[in-house]
From TrEMBL:
Catalytic activity, EC: 6.1.1.19
Signal sequence residues: none
Name recorded for this polypeptide: Arginine--tRNA ligase
Span of the annotated motif 'HIGH' region: 127-137
InterPro entries recorded: Arg-tRNA-ligase, Arg-tRNA-synth_N, Arg-tRNA-synth_N_sf, ArgRS_core, DALR_anticod-bd, Rossmann-like_a/b/a_fold, tRNAsynth_Ia_anticodon-bd
Organism (species): Lentilactobacillus sunkii DSM 19904
Gene3D superfamilies cross-referenced by the UniProt entry: Arginyl tRNA synthetase N-terminal domain, HUPs, Isoleucyl-tRNA Synthetase, Domain 1
Transmembrane segments annotated in the record for this chain: none
Database matches in CDD domains: Anticodon_Ia_Arg (cd07956), ArgRS_core (cd00671)
Keywords carried by this UniProt record: Aminoacyl-tRNA synthetase, ATP-binding, Cytoplasm, Ligase, Nucleotide-binding, Protein biosynthesis
Length: 568
């Protein structure tokens, strides 16, 4: 890519070296270059402190002396401010290069092939069968989806795996609850809400009747042993749950490559257990089988209970072996809440001890809690806020706002869905993923401030300007825009490829969300202070900027899993 900050850093480095006498190497000058805090202080700055001992002068004086010697013909200007040499890039040349590149590459702008097509399974979303998808599932789903999109942008091949919670003792509890208090017709009419009602009732009753827990364990054992009645109920619960889940995923615009849940690995655990035995890693502890992890400063990992029952980790070992064999992954990602951090440290350590090839590149992608009015969500206690209902509320609120702002807008329902759902997704992803979030619907739907609708509206504004301009031939047009009011927007456009790389490396979608807000704010400030549709020799350059902003805002939102309507 031509005209990037890296090229300009090299240009500034050479300009400084030309007026030095080998006092610093090229690498030293390059490394010392800084980006000033504000554009008013220049685009790149060199601190003269490191030359004080060489020249035996104050850094301020050195900066003044160097500025007088530097060839400024390829810059707008170079000035000394205190101990710094501030370089102001040639706005016309710079904008011409950046705008040409964005318009030529379109949605592919910022794409790279760093991943070289490597497979990356992403364990994400993973709701439990027979329980509703609540707001608590939002984070894993949208963070995982955005990371998958960032991986594609950086040349990887993600495999989104919805590792369903479709096995375990909770199914013993649910089957017992259904048999005691359930009704087939009720479940057929409203499967998820009724099934969760039975599950909540079980947990209320077992406080006074602990024998229910024994009954649930016995029932789950029957399920494991393939008892016909238990298996029939389990399959039914799974089917109606998936039908319900997929309606919500469709609303969110999230798809998966595989739905291999815990049950899929139920007959694949023996291999992992055998490997642990063959390597002498499985040892007995109080009747149970554990793997000691002292060398990792971790507690022993419990692999099999004293009665031979398996655990989450037993199935996760089987899952890791399957993914390793099936995908030969470049990385193996688990988008799971931060409360599971210690567990994933243990899992990775066990897989390393087993010698699994992909174990070194296993990454737990933790995220903070989502609360509503400061309260943690819990299915067991019955404190559930259904994601489907929140999405519907957001869509309805968005529609009201659109009708107030733009009553003649065609396809209002479609735009309301894109804005409402987009607001929920963006409201999550603008936060650093390890932070906790307290959810307030009205705050997410505002058209002003740090929200998804604000970025969407900025994109729609750019598209509106382009529609008013009519047919524009951008190809070959001079895009040398030297308007100082546009400079903040142009430099923001230049930063996009670096943001894409950084967000992928850090598994941090919030970097893209924050970038989109920065670009939107810069563009809106430019729009407020400049007349764009004025017939003069810079009209094509201004419209090129508007088009570039539209492209990059749309792609930024796309990488977050958010739609960008052309009109709002």
């Amino acid at each position: 890519m031509e005209g990037t900050l890296m090229d300009y850093k090299a240009q500034v480095t050479n300009s400084i070296l030309n007026v030095l006498n080998d006092e610093l190497s090229s690498a030293e000058v390059y490394e010392k270059l800084e980006k000033p805090k504000t554009l008013a202080m220049g685009d790149l700055a060199f601190p003269a402190f490191s030359l004080a001992k060489v020249f035996h002068k104050a850094p301020n004086a050195i900066a003044e002396e160097l500025v007088s010697k530097i060839d400024q013909s390829s810059y707008e200007k170079v000035e000394a401010k205190g101990a710094y040499l501030n370089f102001f890039l040639d706005k016309g040349n710079f904008s011409n290069e950046i705008l040409n590149e964005v318009l030529e590459e379109g949605a592919a702008y910022g794409q790279n092939d760093n991943g070289k097509g490597g497979n990356v399974p992403i364990d994400m979303s993973s709701p439990n069968i027979a329980k509703p998808i609540s707001m608590g599932h939002l984070r894993s789903t949208v963070i995982g989806n955005s990371i998958a999109k960032l991986l594609v942008k950086n040349g990887y091949h993600p495999i989104k795996d919805n590792h369903l919670g479709d096995w375990g003792t909770q199914f013993g509890k649910l089957i017992v609850a259904y048999k005691k208090w359930g009704n087939e017709d009720d479940v057929k009419k409203d499967p998820i809400n009724n099934l969760v009602k039975y599950y909540v009732k079980f947990h209320k009753e077992d406080k006074e009747h602990p024998e229910l827990d024994d009954e649930a364990r016995e029932t789950f054992k029957k399920l494991e042993d393939g008892n016909e009645e238990e298996v029939f109920l389990w399959k039914w619960f799974r089917k109606v749950s998936l039908e319900s889940f997929n309606k919500i995923y469709e609303k969110l615009g999230v798809t998966f490559d595989t739905y291999n849940g815990e049950a899929f690995y139920n007959d694949k655990m023996d291999e992992g257990i055998q490997i642990l035995k063959d390597k002498g890693l499985l040892v007995e502890s109080q009747g149970a089988q554990v793997v000691k992890l002292d060398k990792y400063n971790l507690n022993p990992a419990l692999i099999l209970k004293s009665d031979g029952a398996t655990l989450y980790i037993t199935r996760d070992i089987a899952t890791a072996i399957y993914r390793d064999r099936t995908y030969k992954p470049a990385m193996n990602l688990y988008v799971v809440g931060a409360e599971q951090t210690y567990y994933f440290q243990q899992l990775k350590a066990v897989l390393l001890e087993m010698g699994l090839p992909s174990a070194e590149n296993l990454h737990h992608i933790p995220f903070g809690l989502i609360t509503v009015n400061g309260k943690k969500l819990s299915t067991r206690s019955g404190r559930i806020i259904l994601l489907d209902e929140v999405l519907d509320d957001a869509i309805n609120l968005a529609k009201k706002q659109i009708e107030a702002k733009n009553p003649d807008l065609p396809n209002k329902d479609e735009v309301a869905k894109e804005v409402g759902v987009g607001a929920i997704i963006f409201g999550d992803l603008k936060n650093e993923r390890t932070n906790n979030i307290d959810f307030v619907l009205e705050d997410q739907l505002r058209f002003e401030g740090e929200t998804g609708p604000y970025v969407q509206y900025s994109h729609a504004r750019a598209e509106s300007i382009l529609r008013k301009a009519g047919d524009i031939d951008f190809h070959g047009a001079d895009k040398s825009l030297d308007d100082p009011a546009a400079w903040e927007t142009i430099t923001a456009l230049k930063d996009f490829p670096d943001v894409i790389k950084s967000a992928c490396k850090d598994f941090e979608p919030s970097e893209v969300a924050k970038y989109s807000l920065r670009l939107a704010k810069a563009f809106n400030k430019y729009y407020a202070h400049s007349k764009i549709l004025v017939e003069d020799d810079q009209l094509a350059a201004r419209l090129s900027l508007v088009k570039a902003v539209s492209i990059v805002l749309k792609e930024s939102l796309n990488l977050l899993g958010v739609k960008a309507p052309d009109a709002m």
